[in-house]
Amino acid sequence: MPPAPQGLNVVLSTNGNSATISWVMSPGNVTGYLIYRQDHPWSGFEVLTNVSPNQTSFVDLNLPDGSEFKYLMQAQYGGGNSALSPDYDANTQSDYTTDAWIVREAQGRPCLVVSNIPRNVSALRVQWSSSPLDSGMVYPIFGYDINEEDLQTINSSPEGSIVIPITSLTNGVYTFNASELPLYEKYDFQIQALGTDGKPGRAINPYPYGGPSYRGEPYIENANIPFLNGSTQIVENVKFLLRVAQTNNPFFIWNISHWPDNLNPGQRDYVFAGFHYRQSPLFAPPSMSINEFQPFEENAFYRNFCFDINLIDNLGFLSSGVGSYVQSDIDPLTSFLDPSTERIGYGFSSVLSLTYRFNTAQYVSHTNTSPTASLLSDSASQWIYSDDDAIGWNGFAGTISGTNTALILQSNVRNIYGLKILSVKWPSRQRTFPTITPGTVIEDNLNGSYFAEIEQPTLQTVGYFFGRLGIDPVPGDPTFNVTNSTPSPIIIPVGKPFSLTAWAKKAISNGYTNKFAYAEQYFDKAYKIDANGNVTTNETGILSPYGEFFPTEPGKVALVTMPDIDNTNQCGTGVVNVIKLQLDVNHDGVMDQSFAGPDNTSADRPFRFWANNDYDRLHDVDCSFGSCDHVEDDLDPGTDGFPLNSLPDSQFTDPRTGRPAIPSLRDLEDYTRLWASGLSNVMAIMPTNYTVKLVLTGDAQLRIFRAYENDGGTNYLFDAATASSQVAQSASLYLGLLTSDSSITLSGGTNLGEHFIFCGAQTGSAEVDLQILDGNQNFVADAPFYIEIKDIKQMYERWTVGDEPLVKPAITATSAKEGVVLPFQYLPPTDNNTPYILLVHGWNMKKWEKDRFAEAAFKRLYWQGYQGRFGIFRWPTGNGITDTLSAVLHARNYDNSEFTAWTSATGLLNKLTELNMEYPGNVYLMAHSMGNVVAGEALRLAGTNHVVNTYVAMQAAVSAHAYDPGTPTWTSGSTPDIYANYWTNGAPCYFNGVSGTGSRADFYNTNDFALNAWLTDQYWKPDHGISSYPGYWYSTPGTTHPSGFYKIFGSGANDFSNLYFPTDSYVILAYCVQSRSYCLGATASASGFTPQDLSSVWPGDTHPELHGPYSAHFWHSAEFRANNMEQNAYWNQLLQTYKLINPQ
How far apart are CA 657 and CA 771, in angstroms? Predict the structure, then answer.
């Protein structure tokens, strides 16, 4: 089946009434094109129209209602239709899609965090609505009893939207305010990028606070809940739990109507309190979930257990709504209750019956933002409820005196955590609840509630425990142990939400030494840790008080808790290691490791790089000139002695060792950098049985080497000494070929470092993942990037008016195709300031050589940080001249090509006109050698139309007199100086008044080999044709030959035809006229051109000199040959000349 049409693009008119569909002409004998349209997402594609094979665009004037219509197309052939093209959404621009998360900042407010924002995006549209799965936010978040609907407030999320200008983001972050997002509502968001052209990107659903989080907390609602500091309540709650415990059992809740796991039960060796609660979902393991109101809800609930005379009923019982029950386990042998397991459980029959409760539903309905006062002060909680059945566990012992039973409060009795029982309030007959101290005897036949005074614990923070929810056992988990320490290392990637809990481990100074209280901590700041392990004052990432951390850059980070409320000088510090696989996506030379920076990738916006499928090798050239020159070139197998079976550079092996290696310095321009940032920190502290590896998923392949530079810099591209070391040591620096079938293990190596370089070994798309696995090969952490490796011919445009010598050039350039590589065209630019550089090649080039020069230019502009677009204009030059002998044997080759160059100018002008319409004022032209004939004539034909911003003539093989008759002459010549005076004596020069470009520059070399040879060609003009016809002649103008120029085609007296101006100007210039001046490219000061002496941007000349420095043949095309280290300054100067970069 023939391939699908390429380059499908749809542009809506500004009024939205029509759509222009365009595409690249398909190869082969196309008989027509079918255009399909889908009018609605729920409908199929139907044929819209059938157009002719010569068309490359169609205007749809009958658009459907709505904004979700799409197009696709198919080429028709005699033997059947092609494959269908990918569909194109007329209303969205896929390049505008960006990644987004919703996270919480230091005050608990929701933030929008975006990354990978395309340059042409001007704003973000944020839309929100109620969830389709439920009706909104439920309060209390967990509820004491989910069946009591009167305790639930359902806040429905209002629908709304705002447009956020990109300029309103700070480092990719936008914090919503309460006027935009009302408090305590729950939101479902959609984010859509808006382009400067008015087109939106694809709408995406951002990740919520914690879900799917990075191996941390499970899904959290996107609720706008401000930070409520419950630190005081948390400490009071752990103190209560320590004091309420019995002598042999911790406090626990057991209720006849339900079992609220959210009310955290104490353990035998510790208690805990915080803002996370334990859930026991049906058919799922227990987990910890967040409840921002829990410290206040528990604080109020526990207050119901405290003595208050006003809450004692007439029978002497506590009437606050709580009670107690005796509970025993079943003996598995007898199936009866086991008396030895008896313990007191506490509970309540109804939430509504509680005297004290933090009414969360009411609180949020009034949009309160300040925490309520604590309710468990030392005085308020002095005596804590203990059922009369519990007296045996609270320090009482029975005594018998006659028929009366009495109780005595024993001395030095401690509860399970080692806190002493100081006194008890008992009902007494008068219901006055007198206080008894140890040694006191009371009656044992009175009903009522008892209240024990347990000494207040003296707590001392002895350490901090940090744990990841869902990964590490934390206080409250059945497997947590007081001997647990913070796991290390904690590893997370940049740009993934992560949750960490912090607990102050508090010893009980006046209790048992092996019992503890864990008070959950709020977080304060996230600080960078320097290379020496010191915590700096530089903040990083986005950290909420609840431990939700969004890392924005790699490195070690200290997550610091808020100060201890009893000791403000004491804070906890949890260390996390943030990793990232970093690329220089925008190739500006800076590895921007920030989350919001331009060097991030996603599945929608992968890093695009070219395959290293060329042949950059050192070889000998120009040996016929007396001394061989040694040059690195991009070769063609089977040409000029280069073996046909040679492998491309991505498969090159060192012939001495057989190991994979890099063949040349030139080949380094096909390598880009990869940093595994933060990996060294991890490798230094991770267990020895951990595994670190690179894993690829997809069909691309990468060849990876360690970077020679310790800092992972760019000197391998620009510095010859560094590049030489990288190449010389490449066999030992080789890491491996990364494919979907073959990962690369990094752990266990020595001197690995974090810095690598790689090339594309096979085209395709892939996700590359840095994975860290534990000793059981369980996943610990990862950091991915996305890449697309392309044939470089699919990254720049190749326009041609013909490539066969002596074939008349076309007047319209078409997109070139060779072999299996389909024609490539850019989609219309989305930025009105997008620059486009077009190269016009010179003489004596085969098709593959034209592309190699273009690809060298593309790569070297790329490494200068050029962000625009690039193309080559190919014309049918002669070729095959390899040495002096071939030049003599094909003497007319050059002048035939010059004639073709003049006649190719119309096609170039038409292409420049098209480009200037698409890139108005941003088309930049560079022409090399004879290509300046094509370029100069195209700009002359343009007249007063500025089709080019700036034109750079590179070693221009065109007469300097054509631009400036005042430049030096080298000969008197036998023909009139038509270049200086076109076409009569005293007339202006040929290119006089040319204004097709805004400015011009002359990149010249006065010792240029080829331009010196050009003088020889000029000397022998006119081309008499001594041994062949036609021959070109000049004689003094007269009746026989009015212009003086004529062409003979036989030996007869009348076997000639006269040549006239301007009809035959191209023939006269190519075959007849001698230039009195030197080439423009060998002239230092031609009027109208900004001069650039190439010797000032080239390195010192180490090539064989023929007539002075830079006179070797190599230098005529040096900018395309050799390597980037030598030619870096050239391309930098070119972009400065274009004013596309600032002078350095």
Answer: 31
Angle, CA of 23, 28 and 32, to the nearest 5°: 55
The answer to whether residue 283 scores a pLDDT higher than 70 is no
CB 801 within 8 A of CB 875: yes
Among 920, 1002, 999, CA closest to 960: 1002
Residue 967 placed within a domain: no
CA distance 506 to 516: 6
139, two tokens: 């309060």
Q: How far apart are CA 662 and CA 725, in angstroms?
A: 11
Distances (CA, A) of 655 to 38, 126, 620, 646: 57, 59, 18, 12
Let me know: does 779 contact 773? Beta carbons within 8 Å: yes
SS3 of residue 934 by DSSP: helix
* pLDDT for position 105: 94
- CA gap 206, 69 in Å, rounded: 24
Residues 318 and 398 in one domain: yes
The domain boundary, picked from 792, 826, 849, lies at 792
Quote the number of domains for the chain: 6
Q: What does the block give as tokens for 483?
A: 């001997």
What's the pLDDT at 144?
A: 47
Q: Domain boundary residue among 37, 55, 89?
A: 89
Answer yes or no: do 411 and 508 share one domain: no
The tokens for 787 are 């890449």
Query: Which pLDDT score is estimated for 1026?
Result: 55
Q: Any idea what the CATH number is for the domain that residue 167 is in? A: 2.60.40
CA 790 from centroid of its chain's CA atoms: 18
| Distant-in-sequence, close-in-space partners of 93: CB < 8 Å, separation ≥ 6 | 195, 197, 199, 200, 201, 830
**Domain that includes residue 297, residue range:** 231-454
Residue 1060 pLDDT exceeds 60: yes
Give the phi and the psi of residue 513 in degrees, each rounded to 5.
-75, -20
Yes or no: say if 675 and 591 are a contact pair by the CB < 8 Å rule.
yes
Same structural domain, 128 and 52: no
Do the beta carbons of residue 918 and residue 823 sit within 8 Å? Answer: no
User: How far from 83 is each of 48, 57, 160, CA to CA, in Å?
Assistant: 17, 19, 42
Helix 1124-1137 with 720-728: angle, nearest 10 deg: 140
- Average pLDDT taken over every residue of the chain: 89
Distance CA 990, CA 987 (A): 9
Q: What is the pLDDT of residues 298-348, one digit of tens each?
A: 999 999 999 999 999 988 899 998 887 666 555 555 555 555 555 666 777
Q: Same structural domain for residues 380 and 471?
A: no
Residue 581 counted as domain residue:
no
Report the alpha-carbon angle 31-36-42, nearest 5. 160
β 173-175/498-499 pair status: unpaired
| Spatial distance between the Cα atoms of 592 and 584, rounded to a whole number of angstroms | 7
Nearest-CA neighbor of 772 among 695, 694, 692? Answer: 692
**Structural domain contains residue 803:** no
Q: Does one domain contain both 653 and 673?
A: yes
Are residues 348 and 484 located together in one domain of the fold? Answer: no
Instruction: Identify the helix (H) or strand (E) that includes residue 722.
Output: helix 720-728
Number of H helices, E strands in the chain: 15, 61
* DSSP calls for 202-227: --B--B-SSTT-SSSS-----B----
Domain presence at residue 1057: no
Q: What is the CATH classification number for the domain harbouring 939?
A: 3.40.50
Burial of 805 (0-12, 13-18, 19+ CB in 10 A): middle
The whole-number average pLDDT for the span 483-512 is 96
CATH label of the domain that carries residue 10: 2.60.40.10
Residue 115's nearest CA partner among 126, 99, 101 is 99
Which residue type is seen at 376? L
Residue length of the chain: 1144
Is there a single domain that holds both residue 886 and residue 1003? yes
pTM of the model: 0.88
Q: Are residues 399 and 438 in the same domain?
A: yes
Tokens 């530079």 identify what position? 709
